Amino acid sequence: MQAINFLLDFAFDTILMILIVRVWLQLVRADFYNPLSQFVVKVSNPLVIPFRKIIPGFGGVDVATIVLAFIVASLKFVLIPLINGAGINIVSALILGALYLIKQTGVLLFIIMLIMALMSWVVQGYNPTQVIFQQLTDPVLRPIRNIVPVIGGLDLSILAAFLLLNVINILLSGWIPYWAML
Question: How many domains does the chain have?
């Protein structure tokens, strides 16, 4: 049973992260022709296109993908407990799904910034993945860079963002029940 739970958890998290990245790429107007962007769009199209026929975009925001991400996040809290023999509570699944979607967006931001930091040490020259990651994180890191200057050629904005994300996570763990368990 643990193996099935692990595989379902992995599947839900993977689909959710791909959907989050898809919305994020659109919001920052990232390079659509980048190989990573193409991968995300092509993998998520079978799920997103049917929803787009029902739910239109609004103000340049892909509402269909956001709704689909919310449904995937909520389904995780319906199917996994159901498979484990627990009852179904739709209201709590919807609330936990919304919280989980928010938390996974922060986790994804953390992962992308960590990969960016590691790539900055290893990758020399142009790398399409690094370009997309910079486009994704620039709206978050730019305000921090305005406050935290580059010291000795080192950009400490990612470190400051890590600290800020962890402080937000700790605060939300104290304010929102179940946040730490998500």
Answer: 1
Instruction: Give the contacts of 127 (CB within 8 A, at least 6 positions apart).
Output: 119
Asked if residue 136 lies in contact with residue 112, where contact means CB atoms within 8 angstroms, the answer is yes
Determine the 3-state secondary structure of 61 from DSSP. strand
Alpha helices of the chain — where are they, by DSSP H? 2-27, 35-54, 63-83, 90-122, 128-147, 157-175
What's residue 181's pLDDT?
A: 76
Q: pLDDT tens digit string along 25-48?
A: 999 999 999 999 999 999 999 999
Token couple for 79: 């199917």
Extract the tokens encoding 122.
């290893």
Q: What count of other Cβ atoms lies within 10 Å of the Cβ of residue 95?
A: 16
Q: Is the dihedral of CA 108, 112, 118, 119 positive or negative?
A: positive
Two tokens at 156? 């400490």
Range of the domain at 82: 2-181
| pLDDT tens for each residue of 54-63 | 998 888 889 9
